[in-house]
Specification:
By secondary structure, the protein is an alpha/beta fold. It has 8 helices and 7 strands, in the order αααβαβαβαβαβαββ. It binds S-adenosylmethionine.
Length: about 220
Amino acid sequence: MSNITYDYINDYIREITPESLGILGRIEREAKETDLPIIQKEVARLISVLLSVKKPKKILEIGTAVGYSAILMSNYLQEGGKLITIERYDIMQNAAKENIKEAGLEDTISLIEKDAEEVLPILDDSFDVIFLDGAKGQYNNFLPHCLRLLKKDGLLIADNVLHKGTVAKLRYDIPRRQRTIHKRMRSFLWEITHNSDLETCVLPIGDGVAVCHKK
Ligand SMILES: C[S@@+](CC[C@H](N)C(=O)[O-])C[C@H]1O[C@@H](n2cnc3c(N)ncnc32)[C@H](O)[C@@H]1O
């Protein structure tokens, strides 16, 4: 059960969405069988549409996992464009490296094998698109860095912002162990919806996606 939208609506949207081909299709099948953390199909479609309009030259991703979304987003880079992705967990780093190599994208995607907490404060670059998909409790800390690194007219896309719907519930209606993440995600959402430099929408698809345009 999605807890964000109705299952029959999700099922229908997935039914009419064509299967991904090649390496993306293979990773999607593996993710289904083994619980690999990759973006949901609806989120992949949303990102594809946004990026095909934006045509970015540089993308930053926080949270590579096995490289699925990095490979997907690379399809929408301008010629000669680059994607930097950050992953802190070695098993994921190794799987991502293999997938990026198999996709023939070693010259396009640079994997930084570190914690984003260490990398973001010293990253001196600028990006057309930033995809935030790391640990949900850290979004708040990462936000000032993302805003500094995002070009004017750039897009910040953040996944899992409704955290199985719990973020929209009252604090006292969720288990005590989820209250810290609830508080941090609410504060992140408040910040991006009230920042005068951003035009933001929060979409109830997948696990909740926020899209912000830097004015
Ligand atoms: C939901 S998965 C990312 C999925 C990926 N974007 C995709 O759709 O293919 C989140 C990943 O972020 C990594 N991660 C979480 N916090 C991180 C951090 N602070 N720095 C770097 N990687 C982090 C986790 O190890 C995990 O592999």
